[in-house]
Predict the 3D structure of the following.
Amino acid sequence: DPIFVNLYGDYHGRLEANVHLNKSWNKYFHNGLYLHNSRHSGQRDHNNDGFYDDAESNLLNGLWRNLFYGKKWEGQINFQALHNTRKGGQKEIQDGYIVDQTINHLNLSGNLGYVGFQNLNQNTGSIYDISYSEFYGRIGNNLINNKEQHALIQLIYSHNFKDDVHNLTIGPSFNYNKAEEDLFRPNRDPRAYYYNEITPGIFVDYDYKFGESSCEDKKKFIISTSQRIEYLKLNKWFWTPRISLRYNINEEWTTRFSVGRGYRFIRLLSDNINVFTTNREFSAYPIPDYESSWNYGVNLVGKPHIFDREGEFNIDLYATQFEKQLVVDLDSDEPSKPTASLYSLVGNSRALSASSSLAAEIAPKLNAKIGIRFQDNKLQLKSGFREQIMIPRWRGLLSLDYTLLNKKLTWNITSHFVGRMRLPDKTYFPYNLINEHDKYSKSYLTLQSQLNYSLKNWELYAGCENITNYTQHQAIISPVDPTSVYFSANEVYAPINGIKPYLGFKYRMIRK
């Protein structure tokens, strides 16, 4: 669309504007400008604990995208800039507990491909991504300053053989990250963490399709393998294999199996900002150079017919087994000295996930979707092999969509169920401070609804979040004394805002 505008406002003081401007200059060159601004007044305190429920925030985000298509070359160039400020903490107390954060991000990314081969089965291209990010601010008495420079380039050559039965993709890659994280805390030595990661590598992907199926454009079996070898720091070669099998049972049912290995580099402070919304002692030693794991998955998806209407069924089973991991241990407390201990995994750590969903038209113009997810994540801590904190074992969803007036009017109502989750140990906490933070959180149910009315170019919508008005009333531990060693604001497991009605509209200029 040449012009798209979306304006939004809600009862809690959030205003948002999105503007998209697109222009096709000719059949070879197109560009678009995408702008976002959102503001939040952040003046609510529903439980009168002296802390704002939401931070006062301002977010500016802009993206300029350019696409070009030629007879031999095609690609895109994207420029993005983001600026986000957030301020919250105590109300009406000068020099009290304040959270004041700023995030800046600049990004240049895109791709370039050569499409001038006489053999149409050949393809070559490249991907590039260059960025600079910084985060600085205050969280209580903690001052944090993080910066990172990033560059990635990957070259790709792809070739199809024998009418797309075999496909080979190969290419080198180069990844560069340079980062610095600084932490300043009262009466403690400042800490600085430096990262300089230069990671050259090469990858090879191979796909093989075979076996006739009942669907003419699909093979019965598709095997995909991926091999990536990269040279990490500390003179270490890292092998990242992956293989997946897709089996098209028939036109309605498909199943997939996959296994692979992956890794990521660690950012000690940036990955664990929430730890500093407490007054826990901070301990970080020893720290792994990176995290790595093996991942396994099974998926079954189908379109069964229910009451003579086509439905959608999906089931996923996934498991992750960690080889190396940074453990964030909030259970290693001592009398009068709650501690956040970060250290390398010694022992077992695994994550199991099972989810399923079913969507179907249960009556004319009425569609329903139901879903459920189970998670069982455990890892070895100093106190034993235990369930990870702040992860609900059960989640559920029920959604209904109803259309009227030849689809001009649509109504949705959705309910989410969030099961209980384990909370950090508080063996040595004063009992009068624990309240809603003892051992396990409470399960809860939320409800939201939205009504849309569409015209040719316009769409009006109104809705309400958290209709049940459920809130975690005592979200902060020891809010009356933010200097206490027991103070903690990082155990928010449920909404802290009540019912939230909102209004908005969208406008599209339709291309002629």
